[in-house]
Write a structure and sequence with these properties.
The chain has 554 residues and is α+β, with helices and mostly antiparallel strands. It contains nine helices and 30 strands. The chain has two domains: 223 residues, no CATH class; 318 residues, 3-Layer(aba) Sandwich (Alkaline Phosphatase, subunit A).
């Protein structure tokens, strides 16, 4: 694979920056160099919180031009893992410098391409388990491309019912596994949860899990912004745990969020909240002593309902809608009356957030402190998950997703969050996916399952969860881009090369709107692969500020 762009940056000096992408044995190597006269010039990096950082060239007052790239950690959209960028310093005499560097990335098969005008930087994004070369512009509002894998989406859309169980405040893995709060992987206080991810364990038969599930963004704390993100792909700049209100700025009057879009599409959803029955309303948090009886899971007489863990309550159109006490879940399972999308939040004790004052005895072991909180949550999962799995809603193309809200140690790739999928359609036997994921991945997957438009580019460019599921449908393989593409001289348009299995049909789709529903994309060309590369030119590309392409096959 080779991708080459030559553009003048047009800053204080007429500089040329060249990028070449080579693919060797499924490894992508970006080679950057600039050997043109560059007086008093340095390379800097522009940080983008939720996107790909841009490299740009800036003038310097130094007498000598010492050109270099520092070794950096680089994050890709949706909390993707850092990849290694190695720079080589090559000082030259004054007024001249030469730079070389390479960026190593895994490069799987690809299915979608985006171009931008004024191209000067190439990047590989990992979306839906597939990587693509993406040409980026220098605009501060850089928008990465999305990958659409037709077979993966067709498989995901066979899912009929989704159950999401939200847990709290524990990492899956962290640098110090035993530092409080302790990580969940291998934790003796979570025997059931760990049985799900142990190959050969009967509980793991229909389980897949993620090993590279990261925080949605740097500084995404406390809990509330992560729950809002699970609905909308952003926290709207809110970093609080307050109950929703206009005064606090955390009540959003938009329908561009998951359950708002489900409403618009006539797709059923339910919100099950433990201890809701003790609260004056679903948008009001409440804690105290149960007026009678005790919690059926942990035996405590305390209740604790927290709105900050109920994402639908932060949107005007879904506040106090379709929300039920947790007990209603089991009645709905028995009557096959659950929604297609079902959100489940245990109370603060059973979701691993808080530990009971007197500790918790679990399977003959008395736990206190954070281990007690873990044991309380594990006991909840061991009780509730088998009941869901016994239902017809689960057994007929259902899926359970276990999820925690936020990292507790670091927000970088030293810390992972648990993401466990249980489904008859999962790859099973504790299949461990190394695809980089985040909360945006869950949201994107819901959009794909239910045929919704992506909420924003952050959602669109995230990897979905498809790697954890069995792929059904066409077994002949997917189309892939075999080159990054290039703008042709003058008004020649944008040209790229792609390939696919011989005798398999294809369509080239294009849109200037990344989040447009796929039926709204324009079909530019169709044909049949002949076993060799297909070269395609979009002569209209120069007329668009952004242009996105999908190779649909079959």
């Amino acid at each position: 694979m080779r991708f080459e762009c030559l553009r003048s940056l047009g800053r204080r000096h007429d500089l040329t920056f060249k990028v070449v992408l080579l693919s060797i044995a499924n490894r992508a190597i970006f080679i950057f160099w600039n050997c043109k006269g560059m007086p008093h010039t340095r390379i800097h990096k522009t940080p983008y919180r939720h996107g790909v950082g841009a490299w740009y060239i800036k003038s310097s007052s130094h007498a000598r031009a010492d050109m270099h790239l520092r070794q950096v950690t680089r994050f890709f959209p949706g909390g993707n893992s850092a990849r290694r960028l190695v720079g080589h310093e090559t000082p030259h005499a004054s007024r001249h410098a030469c730079l070389g560097a390479h960026l190593e990335l895994s490069l799987p098969k690809t299915t979608t391409l985006s171009i931008r005008k004024n191209i000067f930087l190439a990047a590989v994004l990992f979306v839906g388990g597939f990587g693509i070369p993406v040409a980026q512009s220098m605009s501060p509002a850089m928008e990465p491309a999305t990958v659409t894998n037709t077979n993966a989406i067709q498989s995901l859309q066979q899912i009929k019912t989704v159950f999401v169980i939200a847990l709290e405040n524990h990492d899956w893995t962290q640098i110090c596994p035993d530092c409080a709060p302790q990580q969940l992987l291998g934790n003796p206080a979570a025997p059931y949860l760990n049985s799900l991810v142990t190959p050969g364990n009967p509980n793991a038969a229909q389980v897949s899990c993620a090993t590279a599930y990261y925080s949605a963004a740097q500084g995404e704390h406390p809990s509330e912004p992560n729950y809002i993100w699970s609905e909308a792909g952003t926290e709207f700049g809110v970093y609080t745990d307050n109950d929703p209100s206009v005064a606090w700025g955390n009540l959003f009057n938009t329908t561009n969020h998951l359950c708002g879009q489900l409403n618009a599409s006539g797709i059923s959803w339910r919100d099950y909240q433990e201890d809701l029955e003790y609260a004056p309303a679903a948008n009001v948090s409440s804690a105290g002593m149960c007026p009678s009886g005790s919690n059926i899971y942990n035996g405590s007489t305390e209740f604790y309902y927290a709105v900050k863990h109920n994402p639908m309550e932060f949107f005007v159109d879904t506040q106090n809608q379709n929300v039920h006490p947790l007990a209603q879940l089991f009645a709905d399972l028995s009557n096959n009356a659950v929604g297609r999308y079902n959100w489940i939040t245990p109370d603060e004790f059973n979701e691993m957030h808080s530990y009971l004052p007197g500790g918790f005895n679990y399977q003959g072991v008395q736990y206190t402190g954070y281990p007690a909180a873990i044991a309380e949550g594990d006991n909840f999962l061991a009780t509730v998950i088998p009941r869901i799995m016994a239902s017809s809603a689960y057994q007929d193309h259902g899926v359970i997703i276990i999820w925690t809200d936020e990292t507790e140690s670091t927000d970088d790739t030293n810390t992972t969050l648990p993401e466990i999928v249980i489904s008859p359609m999962a790859k099973g036997n504790a299949y461990a996916s190394s695809v980089v994921m985040s909360h945006s991945s869950d949201l994107k997957t819901m959009d794909e399952i239910f045929g919704l438009a992506f909420q924003n580019n952050t959602t669109a460019t995230a990897n979905d969860l498809s790697d954890m599921f069995q792929m059904t449908g066409n077994a002949g393989g997917n189309a892939s881009f075999t080159g990054g593409g290039q703008m042709m001289p003058g008004a020649g348009g944008f040209q790229f090369t792609f390939s696919g299995p011989a005798s398999q049909t294809y369509q080239v789709l294009a849109s200037d709107n990344l989040t447009a529903p796929k039926p709204a994309w324009t079909t530019l060309s169709s044909g049949m692969f002949g076993g060799t590369n297909t070269i395609f030119t979009d002569s209209n590309a120069p007329h668009y500020p952004s242009r996105f392409y999908i190779i649909k096959s079959p």
